[in-house]
Amino acid sequence: MPASNVLNPLLEKQALQQLGDLDAIPAPIASLLRVVSATYDRFQRDRQLLERAMDLSSDELLAVNARLREERDHQAEMLVDLQEEIARREVAETALRNSKQLLTQLLEAVPVGVLVVDRSGSTYYVNRMAKTICGMTREEFTLDLLTEKFKLFVRDTRAHYPTDQLPVVRALIGESSMIDDLDLVQDGQVIPLQSWAAPVYSSDGTIEYAISAFADISGRLAVEEALRRAKDDADAAARAKSEFLANMSHEIRTPMNGVIGMTSLLLDTALTYEQQDFVNVIRSSGESLLTIINDILDFSKIEARKLVLERHPFDLRQCLEDALDLLVPAASAKGLELLLHVEHDVPQIIVSDVTRVRQVIVNLLSNAIKFTPAGEVSVHVTAEHLPRDLFKIVIQVRDTGIGIPADRMNLLFESFSQVDASITRKYGGTGLGLAISHQLSELLGGGLTVTSAPGVGSTFACTLVAPAGEAEKRPDTGELAGKRVLIVDDNVTNLRILALQTSAWGMRPETASSGEEALTRLAGEPFDLALFDMQMPGMDGLALARAVGSRDGLADMPIVLLSSIGQNLTHDRSIIHAWLSKPVKSEYLRRTIAEACRVPLSTPRLPSESPPPAALASRAGTRILLAEDNAINQKVATKMLENMGHRVDVVANGLEVLDALDRIVYDIVLMDMMMPEMDGLTATRQVRARSSR
Ligand code: ADP
Fold it and tell me: How many angstroms separate the Cα of 342 from the Cα of each of 58, 66, 316, 331, 360?
């Protein structure tokens, strides 16, 4: 056996030194060597084991030591924690005591009675106010006492309040409730109470208490009663005021209508010029006074919120043309241009209150004319499409008048205010017109605004919001397409309006601002038609027409003259095709142009403008009584009837019709149906009954 493979290394080293080559040693020695080697190995293992065992026990000792130290530290910490916890509890208990005290103080201080009962219905807490209201000590305060000793009634009845309806009782079955119809009767004294209660739950969700608060509400009830009386008084006063106004309106208007009616009779008698003049002054003063009375009545109706707007489809342009018609005499008396321009995208028919729209516009126009010494007054209408088929329509009334100082603008829409007293003396007026217009515009869904520059002019813009009505078929504007028209006017605004209007019909307009410029234009490319304004500085419309007529090649061109009303409308057909009075109504202008250019129109004819048709003229001079409560409708109808040559007296209700018929014999009565005081039907019945007697 090779001894080197099995011997312990230390023994092997020593054996080599002592014995030399180990492979050569005899077997008994080799066997001995192996026994010794095994002993060496065991000894070495034992020593290693001993060493390891000694190491191990010192580690353990260290570990035990460390654990003991940790334990000691931990116990010290726990002791500190415990001390801190005890301190904390003491603080918390003090805070709890304080907050309980505060809560009690608060409950004692509240000005309502507070009662807390436990789930068995026994009183747990009752505050000072509760004892005061019920006149009881804490000891006397039990729920049973509350319902038995005290009489609890349903307010203003002799019925006992049902116990199961009392909030504190309902709270014990989990309902929060409030009543204020409880009367507590104690020693013959009635204390009206308001009472509220709610359940208080414990942490496991069961009802532990019911808390109830109650207050003596005699003060509140007294105030409510006083308010109710004051309101009744105010309502009665308002009713009395409305009745007074209605009576007054009748009382004032009746004699006024008498005065006006009689003046028209007087005018039929033989009078000197001077007397005629006096009578005319009486009549016009009477009419102004009626206008003022109507203004005041309208205003009080709006103030009392009694004004109800109508909603009917109407032709907006027609409404504005009617308004302008009324003011043409006033404007032409001052030599003012009166212009209307409706943008083509404005709906033809809108659904709103035609009378009120016209009233606002007439008022703005008459102010504009009143405060404009020279220049023009124009109405410009635009529309904006809003959602849900509504249109915001803006009607601007612009003048070139005296304007309004910036610091007076905020007063404008106040009732009874005028810009300054000297202006009022010069121009007159009640200061109600703009206040009424402002409120009406708001009722119409919009508003009224103003911009102005002193010495330059003012623009009042009335906005209204309305749905578009079912439009009638718009006239087919294609028929005049391509026609060349020369428009001559010194007024720039009017030139613009006429140019826009004719181009909307597909025509090709050219403009000139004087007769001379027009003649130069006419020397060029030929025109199908010419529109001349009559009043122009230098060469007027008629002179221009004559000059044109005398030129070679121009004699056949039709000429339409535009002129302010009141001018002699007779004309020489050989020079002028037609006269139209300004402001020109769009449809009349279209028809006149079509006629002049010999273009047949598919839409039916409108009633002819002037002179009045023979049939109506033959009946001119009819004495008409017009019964209509709205001032603007009165004006419109009167104007139309007077234009037909009739004599018109106006009254505002059925009663006034009866009064007027007692005094004057009329050929015709035109009666509005809906009028205050006595409506048209009742009045007609009474008139018929009287005439059959
Ligand atoms: P009135 O009936 O007295 O005219 P309004 O309410 O219509 O009352 O007008 C109030 C005042 O506003 C007028 O007195 C005038 O001073 C001023 N005013 C109204 N419109 C105009 C205008 N277009 N230009 C200048 N001032 C105006």
Answer: 114, 105, 9, 20, 17
pLDDT confidence of residue 597? 86
Give the span between the Cα atoms of 259 and 252, in whole angstroms.
Answer: 11
Distance (Å, whole) CA 62 – CA 71: 14
Give tens-digit pLDDT for 413-432.
Answer: 876 655 555 555 455 566 78
- Cα 433 to averaged position of ligand 1 atoms, centre (Å): 8
Edge-to-edge strand ranges of the sheet holding 578-582? 508-512, 484-488, 529-533, 559-564, 578-582
The residue ranges of the chain whose pLDDT is under 50 are 1, 3-4, 425, 566, 605-618
286 CB-near residues (< 8 Å, 6+ apart): 256, 259, 260, 263
Q: What is the SS3 assignment for 460?
A: strand
Q: In terms of Cα–Cα distance, which of 457, 261, 484 is closest to 376?
A: 457
Residues with CB under 6 A from ligand 1: 367-368, 371, 399, 401-402, 404, 412, 418-419, 423-424, 429-435, 458
Rounded to whole angstroms, what are the CA distances from 615 to 131, 578, 602, 653?
96, 22, 26, 30
Tens-digit pLDDT profile for residues 378-392: 999 999 999 888 999
Identify any residues that bridge with 488 across adjacent strands, giving them in sequence order: 512, 532
Residue 529: predicted pLDDT: 92
Nearest CA to ligand 1 atom 21: 367
- Predicted pLDDT of residue 480: 86
Nearest atom in ligand 1 to the alpha carbon of residue 424 is 14
Question: Which residue from 367, 370, 440 has its CB within 8 A of the most atoms of ligand 1, so it is best to mutate?
Answer: 367
Ligand 1 pocket test target in 292, 418, 426, 440 with most atoms within 8 Å of CB: 418
